[in-house]
Structure formats: structure tokens, C-alpha cells
Amino acid sequence: MAQSAEKRMPSDEQKAEHVRKTRVANYRASMRLEGFEVHTTPSSSTKSKLIRKYKKLAVKCA
């Protein structure tokens, strides 16, 4: 009986993934409540654009 209960328990990885998703959802909901515009799908292109921007700034400042 204990073995069947163990099989139904989520793994540590599943628990961690659930916590990550919940954390992000809570953060977005909190930002919306505070009146900030929240984009539901962050794009990786935005990240790469920021990296390029700051690399250019580093070259100019150096």
C-alpha cells in the first residue's frame, strides 16, 4: 500500500516545475494588480536585443 502512494506522489522535478510556474503566475498577477502592463509571453529576442544594446554601450564607454 505504501508503494502505490509513493507512485502517485510527484517527483522533486515536478514539484519544482510547479513552484516555478506558480511563482511566475503570481508575479504577473501582482504586477497587473499594481497597474503595470504585463506581457504573457516573454520573447528571447528581447533578451538578445538587450544584450546587444549593452555590449554596444560597453564598447562606447571603454
Return the domain count.
1
* Mean of residue pLDDT values: 82
- Please count the helical segments: 3
- Alpha-carbon distance between the termini? 67 Å
Percentage of residues in strands:
under 5%
Helix content: over 70%
**Uncertain spans, ≥5 residues at pLDDT below 50?**
none
State the shape: elongated
How many beta-strand runs? 0
- Computed over alpha carbons, the radius of gyration is 20 Å
Query: How is the main sheet built?
Result: none
Oligomer: single chain
Would you tell me the structural class of the helices and strands? mainly alpha
Task: Write the H/E string, N to C.
Answer: HHH
Question: Could you list some keywords that capture this structure?
Answer:
mainly alpha, 62 residues
Task: Write up what this structure looks like.
This protein is mainly α. It has one domain (2-61). It is built from three helices and no strands. The chain has helices spanning 2-8, 12-33, 44-61. The termini are far apart. The model has no long low-confidence stretch (mean pLDDT 82).
